[in-house]
Amino acid sequence: MAKRSIHSKADGEAKITWKETFKVHYWAFREMGRGCPGIFTVTAIHSALSALTPYVTIFLSARIINELAGSRRPGTLQTLVLAELFSVAVLTLLTGGVLRLKEFMKCKYDVRKERVFTDKMLSMDFADVDKTESHDLLSQIEQNGRWGGWGLGVLLPGFAELTRGVFGILGAIALTVSLFTLPVPKSGGSLTVLNHPVFILGIVAALGLVTWISPLCNNKAIEYWTRSSEESKFFNRLFSAFGFLYGDRSRSMDIRMYDQQVIARHYMGSDGGFGTKGPMAAYARGVVGAWAALGASISSVMTGAVYVFVCLKAWAGAFGIGSVTQYVGAVTALSQNISLLIQTAGRLKSNTAFMRTIYEFLDIPNAMYQGSLSTEKRADREYEVEFRDVSFHYPGTETWALRHVNMKFKIGKKMAVVGENGSGKTTFIKLLCRLYDPQEGQILLNGIDIRKYDYRDYMDVFAVVFQDFQLLAQPLGNNVAGAQEYDADRVKKALMDAGFGERLGAMPEGLDTMLYKDYVKDGVEVSGGEAQKIAIARALYRDAPFIILDEPTAALDPVAEAEIYSKFNDIVGDKTAIYISHRLSSCKFCDEILVFHKGQVIQQGTHEELLAEARGKYYELWHAQAQYYTG
Ligand code: ADP
Which ligand 1 atom lies nearest to the CA of residue 429? Predict the structure, then answer.
């Protein structure tokens, strides 16, 4: 989405003005219009047709009734009836056709509406993706959309209602003008007083009151929902945390075993924020209901006054009986359309509070995407990475996760990274892959700070198998290739290299076998170890110059583990490999070993060299583990 700066956190709670209401919705209107060209034009045409069609009926019916009550000319009557039938038929057909087109385009609009957020989430700096605040904002936006259709969901219906209101008002005015211009004839006696301009003013004022006060009351009612948007944030959070527990497959065993639904229900029941005893229900029962009722009753009384005026003028002979139906119809439609316009404007104003949350999310800056240098795809794969005095702490924490790390990767070599839990191994990899930027020092690729490279280009240099990798409930081949279309031979080779060859042979539909049973009954549930092999194959298929394996054998049984080690050299080929492991025995075959301790690299060398340092950390870890294995 385009960059804009309408909202800043400072004005989060500021009063909503009409100017801001217009600005935020105009931006959304332009962005959404760009994403789905034509949707607003088609909506406006549909609004015009559906607003004006009833007036054609009102106008022609009035002419027919006047004719019936007056001259009763068969020829004129026939023409009028045919004109009414024909015009209504054509307009109805046209409205139906445009509605179909609008519904069709709306599907695209709905997808686009969601894309705004997925695109942002996917392009956001990882440090922000990792923050609870970002997820909170997104879940608030989703919840606001779900419970009241607030946010971008208001825009299209809002636009449809605004345009419908405008066309409706124009049509009604056109049909009402003659109510004021046709005078009561002298034969009307004392009723000629109705020709006095004061009556015109009075009726216009009554119309104004009807159309103004009743939607104002309604808007007052709606305002309570906006006011409670702050209040409901907390309930929304509870709702998204507990409301969908039952559908979360990974929790189903815990829920059964410990009856967790009892705790969850506590927040969802009548005592919960959205329950019958909650503040939202109290609003609905009390003040919101009172405003809505007041709006409806004022409207009825004032409309009645206008009807009396119309009937009196007709009684006094200003116009025929048919025109009464025309004026009554037009006046009713006029007040309805003005109400619609004011209510919609009020709804958009209320929606501004929810749009602010959307902007707060969309305006999170994408600092990492500023670099533009290309990593130039080198055929020789000579990519040299260096950490120069790198220090890093996670956002929101004070403790350094890495401190003064200096190291250089030797191209084409296999390097192991070892150390106790929490010593900084994974953080080191996350910085290398630019999931975070260090606060101090520099990481260089071929001598250039990695922040200067195009982010996606830089990411292409690495293939990582994270400890907590995730596969998708999709066919095996698609998982490995990360795409719908792929080179089957290369996927097979990657799976074989990762040690999945035998299992692949047993897969009922080969690469087309669906993993997991989320979507299909005959999906295959793979074990943790098998999933890990698929994840390794996925990294191999990427064919990046660097391959990083974070605890790659943690979920494998000893046989599978030995198989991976024995094939490790074949697996990584000429790539530079980085291998993180707790098990030192699995690092022996690496060319070089980095030992992390409390965020620092305290030793570096081959297995033999490190073992020779009898007071070193590596020596200590090695013997601790050897004891464990032999004991
Ligand atoms: P290792 O991979 O060696 O087990 P990590 O790199 O995961 O260690 O962790 C290094 C330090 O950073 C630890 O103290 C850990 O608690 C902390 N840490 C890791 N991830 C986060 C995070 N997302 N937010 C805050 N601190 C973290």
Answer: 6
